[in-house]
Specification:
The chain contains 18 helices and 14 strands. It is an alpha/beta fold and 544 residues long. The chain folds into 3 domains: 88 residues, 2-Layer Sandwich (Gyrase A, domain 2); 182 residues, 3-Layer(aba) Sandwich (Rossmann fold); 119 residues, Isoleucyl-tRNA Synthetase, Domain 1, CATH 1.10.730. Helix 2 packs across helix 3, helix 6 crosses helix 8 and helix 16 packs parallel to helix 18. The longest helix has 24 residues.
Length: 544
């Protein structure tokens, strides 16, 4: 008899669905398994019939009954299936199904939760990509936490993921940055020279200037300064435990190589451009964009959009099946025109997706911290790490969906209480570690081998058993949706249920067989918490 897990339940339903419903293909709907709100409705529930009702023009109850009629069950694991209004398929599992999943968790350990759903897929994930004109701020910190967590989720599904940082070291901001650095050099030498309009200010510019004046012969100020800032950014990301496989320089790899000009010429040959007002335009309005865009300005210099098109075409030419970018909140309008440009160039727009990391409001003593990068008034990633540490920063930035604004409360992130959500989850892990030590001191050792779990019949234990069984699905669905905040929701529920179990179910003074079973369950929870926190880039401490 093969062990039953959440994916096998899904497959059973998928097979029944395929036999019952035609001509729709299974890929058109999500056959998700969830926990019903009412305990009397079984262990797991599937809402697929409601998703199909409009398409099939049938009542969801009738669809659900058709699926159930074709459901081939193993009574040794699934003891009951019922259809409930308005169209839920509710399943009751045999306790052995949960016990076998717990056994598998203990045996697989760090591998539990991995899957091969992404095998053969090659994805380029570009994120952060902040201009090298200043230290990384908290908006970049949010993008970094999101990107690294998404990469981890894809990697555990067998996807070939490459993490890339686009170094925007060319164009107007490079010129302004060089001029700003010269102005800062003049200031430290006693000359009252303001930064250029739209330039860069702040204490970090003075720090750069102090180092720049020592270099002889004097290098190009813009290039030298950007290299210094880029090194700061790399050090901050390393401290943040965020890693990139490739750093892609706009200047060196797009402009100096002639790739931008080559791309523009190719677009011309494809009859996708025209001249107007002395500039060269691309016909993106024919492919869904609200208006056409300038490729080459009237002064003969390529627009930023031209370099961006060349860069994204190169991503596909490097053999990636899918491109995922994480952009800042001011890039909403750029998504449509980039999709249109790629489609015009012959690349399917559905293979290119963008996640917008929305604005972060930093709260200090309940007040919003005002920030302006160009004026040098902002909180850097390093300053945030100094205050709250890497774990709280990484966790808080993925705690909400990327497309929602985030209020980051520094005071809450510092707290060592259950009010701090990352502390609450880490404490559950540390509590289990403490429990394991106490048990060892009393000659009660956990076992990853066959354990008699029959005593795990109480409500608190079954909640944890269900959570453990659900974990691989949460990992898979979080990765598919590119939404690590889903895993945060799961962890908060798991931690809450463990704290409830710990308060109600004794271990040390329980009968030996009960104690061993409960200890094994606690070890299973510890394994899942550690694995899930690891995907989010957060540590699982042994003590707190």
């Amino acid at each position: 008899m093969q062990p039953l897990d959440i994916f096998k339940i899904q497959n059973l339903l998928v097979n029944a669905f395929t036999m019952a419903i035609e001509p729709f293909e299974i890929q058109e709907v999500a056959v998700n398994i969830e926990r019903p709100k009412e305990k009397t409705h079984g262990d797991f529930s599937c809402p697929v019939a409601m998703l199909l009702a409009k398409k099939l023009k049938k009542q969801p109850l009738l669809i659900a009954h058709e699926i159930v009629k074709n459901l081939k069950l193993d009574p040794g694991f699934i003891t009951n299936v019922e259809v409930a209004a308005p169209g839920f398929i509710n399943l009751k599992l045999h306790p052995q199904a949960f016990y076998q999943t717990l056994q598998r968790t203990l045996e697989e350990n760090e591998a539990y939760g991995k899957n091969d759903q992404g095998k053969g897929e090659k994805i380029l994930l570009e994120f952060v990509s902040a201009n090298p004109t200043g230290p990384l701020n908290i908006v970049s910190a949010r993008a970094a936490a999101l990107g690294e967590s998404i990469a981890n989720l894809l990697l555990v599904s067998g996807t070939d993921v490459s993490r890339e940082y686009y170094v925007n070291d060319a164009g107007v901001q490079a010129r302004l940055f060089g001029q700003s650095l010269i102005a800062a050099c003049n200031r430290i030498n006693g000359k009252d020279t303001p930064a250029p309009e739209g330039g860069y200010q702040g204490a970090y510019m003075d720090d750069l200037a102090k180092d720049y004046v020592k270099v002889s012969p004097a290098p190009d100020p813009g290039e030298w300064g950007m290299n210094q800032v880029l090194q700061w950014q790399k050090e901050s990301l390393l401290r943040y435990d965020v890693h990139f496989d490739n750093w892609y320089s706009e200047k060196k790899l797009l402009h100096d190589t002639g790739l931008v000009k080559e791309t523009v010429e190719q677009l011309k040959k494809m009859n996708l451009t025209y001249e107007k007002d002395g500039a060269l335009w691309i016909k993106v309005s024919e492919f869904g964009a609200p208006k056409d865009e300038v490729l080459v300005k009237s002064d003969g210099y390529p627009a930023y959009f031209a370099a961006d098109i060349a860069y994204h075409i190169q991503k596909f030419k490097r053999g990636f099946h899918k491109i995922v970018d994480i952009w800042g909140p001011d890039h909403h309008g750029h998504i449509i025109r980039m999709k249109a440009a790629l489609q015009a160039a012959g690349y399917p727009h559905e293979q290119f997706s963008v996640i917008i990391a929305q604005q972060v409001n930093l709260l200090e003593e309940g007040e919003k911290v005002k920030m302006s990068k160009r004026e040098g008034k902002f909180v850097t990633m390093n300053e945030l790490l100094d205050q709250v540490g890497k774990d709280a920063a990484r966790f808080f930035f993925v705690m909400r969906s990327a497309n929602t604004h985030l209020d980051f409360d520094i005071e809450v992130a510092k707290k060592q209480t259950e009010e701090n959500p990352v502390f609450y989850i880490q404490y559950a892990h540390a509590r289990i570690c403490s429990l394991l030590k106490k048990c060892a001191d009393n000659n009660l050792q956990p076992s990853t081998k066959a354990v008699d779990f029959e005593s795990l019949q109480d409500a608190e234990s079954f909640l944890l058993l269900k959570e453990i069984m659900e974990y691989p699905q949460w990992v898979l669905e979080s990765g598919k949706a590119l939404e690590p905040h889903r895993l945060v929701i799961y962890l908060q529920s798991l931690a809450a249920n463990f704290h409830l179990f710990y308060a109600k179910q004794r271990i040390l003074d329980a009968p030996a067989d009960v104690a061993r079973a409960r200890l094994a369950l606690a070890l299973g929870v510890k394994t899942v918490i550690r694995n899930a926190l690891g995907l989010l880039g957060v540590s699982a401490p042994d003590q707190m």
